[in-house]
Amino acid sequence: MQKKGLIGSAFAMGVLSLAMSSAWAQEAPKLTAEEMEKGKQIYFERCAGCHGVLRKGATGKNLEPHWTKTAPDGTKLEGGTLKLGTERLEKIISYGTEGGMVNYDDILTKEEINLMARYIQNTPPIPPEFSLKDMKDSWKLLVPVKDRPTKQMNKVNLKNVFAITLRDAGKLALVDGDTHKIWKILDTGYAVHISRLSASGRYVYTVGRDGLTTIIDMFYEEPTTVATVRLGSDARSVDTSKFKGYEDKYLIGGTYWPPQYSIMDGETLEPMKIVSTRGNTVDGDYHPEPRVASIVASMTKPEWVVNVKETGQILLVDYSDIKNLKSIAIESAKFLHDGGWDMSKRYFMVAANASNKVAAVDTKEGKLAALVDTAKIPHPGRGANFVHPKFGPVWSTGHLGDAVVSLISTASDDPKFAKYKEHNWKVVEQLKMPGAGNLFVKTHPKSKHFWADAPMNPEREVAESVYVFDMNDLSKAPVALNVAKDSGLPESKAIRRAVQPEYNEAGDEVWISLWGGKTDQSAIVIYDDKTLKVKKVITDPAIVTPTGKFNVYNTMHDVY
Ligand code: DHE
């Protein structure tokens, strides 16, 4: 049985209300140099994403030593007594919290959990900065543009290729969506977070959590990496220039550490410019680590939408003149995370997840259209768009912290949707999920189905399933598909999380990753979108810890 955040409420509600006391001057547990190195590595791989390199907190709580070191017995909290320190931290790390922290007892060993409980009581080491020169030194142009094929040298239907992250293997699988066969597995950075496509559909860009960015050319007989560059030491986002006349001229990458974005040549990845995102939050406080979360390319203007997590500032970066770079900073809310376009592709919808809000940016006017209150911790991925029978165009997001999917009415320039104006920028309906822990939702213009996962739910049954709503009758409970059972794989000790539904080009198949442990057999389970029956299970042993999947056509055209 999975343990639910047993001590979660204490951690989630209590830690922040702990009074500062002189007792925190006491020494943190001593670590050997070897333990320190290992702690650093595990912290980077598993913790930094939510808590930040400097541990100031964002999606996760602040983990600076004044919170994590043992408090004296009897320290009074608002709701009772709490003592942090090694033992309590071990429990939190093992079993997770109701505040959204996942349990690590099936990911880390007991010794590693003990190490991390001690490690985070020590002052966070500050990683080095990463300059344009560092980027240039890391840049490898493996094949110059003039030596690349001038036409497609294979017969694969490139538009229906899926780029699939093999998270813990540090690889990317390119799978032929027509034949369901693995086309090629390529080395990439560690735990590629997202893949994005060039405007031409020829190149796949990946960004590893370790900051390594690759460009893969699909015109060769077999996909080939033609250049690589390092953006920094911790990264999540990348996109190309998509506006008419600038197609694939530039690539932008965003880093968590150092907090900055970098602009590169779109075909060679040659580094051109770095811009820091350090500065003030929407509350006016200085923040030393404002990380770059999602980035998207606008098709309305030569601009990227760059969402800065800790400051809550949304930057519209105009790439028409890189030397004299102009950008607009739009105030929204903390902490910005992921998002996607509305149906008209004029508004970018981004989750400010710790504020329980979604910001809608009007990229035509260059200003905030609305800040929409939602249920707890919205986490849309790119979200999902459809025309609601009663409320017109809606964009949707699931929630990590609540058992609902929120449907938000979006504005439209199309006169046929004018009658829905009064609903715009409000949550018009909430679809009931079996529990919290959703990460991704998806639909397709040709489908009547709406898919939602719940991989962060602590219950095995829920985390291993996906939920399919009928858009013709949203009052019906969703159909639950148990992806782990449907995969036909034997039961495993660790939960195999069913994650990120992604449509094929035609919009008639939905691919789900069954994300198991590093040594478990994982799978990609492909469902027929009409019948909801399994069409194919890809269980090749090379499919190690699959997570994000990016269909070439849908990613190029922002179909979701
Ligand atoms: Fe993600 C998107 C950050 C954990 C899978 N994730 C994003 C984006 C950001 C982000 C900023 C938006 C990128 C963009 O659009 O430009 N993710 C983070 C984190 O900081 C966090 C919470 C912790 C971490 O250490 O990374 C985190 N993410 C995860 C996972 O654990 C997931 C489930 C598995 C994995 O591969 O690591 C995961 N994130 C994804 C996926 C997307 C994503 C699949 C793209 C969704 C899409 O449809 O575009």
From TrEMBL:
Asked if the keyword Metal-binding belongs to this entry, the reply reads: yes
Q: What is this protein called?
A: C-type cytochrome
One MF term in GO for this entry?
Answer: heme binding
Per the record's keyword annotation, is Membrane included, yes or no? no
Reported EC number(s) for this entry are 1.7.2.1
Q: Where is the Cytochrome c domain?
A: 34-124
Its keywords, alphabetically, are: Heme, Iron, Metal-binding, Oxidoreductase, Signal
Q: Which Gene3D superfamilies match?
A: C-terminal (heme d1) domain of cytochrome cd1-nitrite reductase (2.140.10.20), Cytochrome c-like domain (1.10.760.10)
Q: Where is the signal peptide?
A: 1-25
Whose protein is this, by species? Thauera aminoaromatica
